Amino acid sequence: MSEAPAPTALLDALAFDRDGLLPAVAQQHGSGEVLMVAWMNRAAVEATLRTGEAHYWSRSRGRLWRKGEESGQTQRVIELRLDCDGDTLLLLVEQTGVACHTGRRSCFFRVYREGRLETSAPVLVAPDDLYGSSGKF
Amino acid sequence: MSEAPAPTALLDALAFDRDGLLPAVAQQHGSGEVLMVAWMNRAAVEATLRTGEAHYWSRSRGRLWRKGEESGQTQRVIELRLDCDGDTLLLLVEQTGVACHTGRRSCFFRVYREGRLETSAPVLVAPDDLYGSSGKF
Questions:
Q1: B88 closest CB neighbour out of A37, A80, A115
Q2: A76 pLDDT tier (thresholds 50, 70, 90)
Q3: Of the CATH numbers 1.20.1260.10, 3.40.30.10, 3.10.20.810, 3.30.1320.10, which one belongs to the domain with range B8-97?
Q4: Are the beta carbons of B81 and A111 separated by less than 8 Å?
């Protein structure tokens, strides 16, 4: 992903919601695994394009956030796609390590089956090793 | 997907937003292709589980909507997954025909590349053949 032109064509095509956000799906390039869904505002889109690393807007912390800034589990963006309505982004990424703060590869590790939620994926990295003992993120 | 138990375990784990909605990613089972992102409320989740066919909440039309109810391009749900925060669903589906109202397989047919939005997928079915000449959906 080149850093070059100002992303006017993209930003003009995006339909942010009333909070100035839209959902972004991060999918592992090649395997097709859906890793996570997070939120982007205009600044997150711009930072992502400028750096080639996925940035999101944290609704809980109220700030821009570079994926992996604390954990080291970064996402290099290979391709950025936009849906027909312009209100969702799809990022094809190269995920370093695990995407989920629980230490699992994908955030979608809970499967609903026969009335129960089952955990379908193992913890690959202990959360304390990702974030220290100071907090969740 | 069985119709059996009331989906209490799932509904209790879901974190709907202040409008009672959450985003749902529909992914083609097997290929991993991300087809679309739409919104679900509690009733859409319940209808999806009850019927095995994806239902969404249309924000533009303000009503529950069975995917393909007009176009015939339905989604049979193979598996339903929940993310770590419970605020996003991932549906693994068997998509009949095309997912996008433009007649393309996926809604994510626009790629941002070198400052421009490029169309990366062909129209497989003319929208008029999907919906008649009466409207977009």
A1: A37
A2: very high
A3: 3.10.20.810
A4: yes
CA distance B125 to B108: 16
A109's CB contacts (< 8 A; 6+ apart) are A100, A102, A119, A120, A121, B81, B84
The tokens of B34 are what? Answer: 């991300």
Amino acid at B99: A
The yes or no reply on domain A8-99 and CATH 3.10.20.810 is yes
- Estimate the share of chain B in helix, then strand, then coil, as percent rounded to the nearest 5: 15, 35, 50
Contact B115 A4 (CB under 8 A): yes
A61 in contact with B at a CB cutoff of 8 Å? Answer: no
CB contact under 8 A, A111 and B7: no
CA dihedral B77, B51, B49, B29 (to 10 degrees): 0
Longest dimension (CA), chain B: 50
Residues of A in contact with B88 (CB under 8 A): 23, 37, 107-108
Pairing of strands B22-28, B89-95: parallel
In chain A, the largest separation of any two C-alpha atoms, in whole Å, equals 50
Domain boundaries along the sequence of chain A = 8-99
Task: State residue B7's pLDDT score.
Answer: 87
Nearest to A11 by CA among A37, A48, A36: A48
Complex prediction ipTM: 0.93
Instruction: Express each pLDDT in A78-131 by its tens digit.
Output: 999 999 999 999 999 999 999 999 999 999 999 999 899 999 999 999 999 998
pTM across the whole model: 0.93
What mean pLDDT comes out for the span B29-55?
Answer: 97
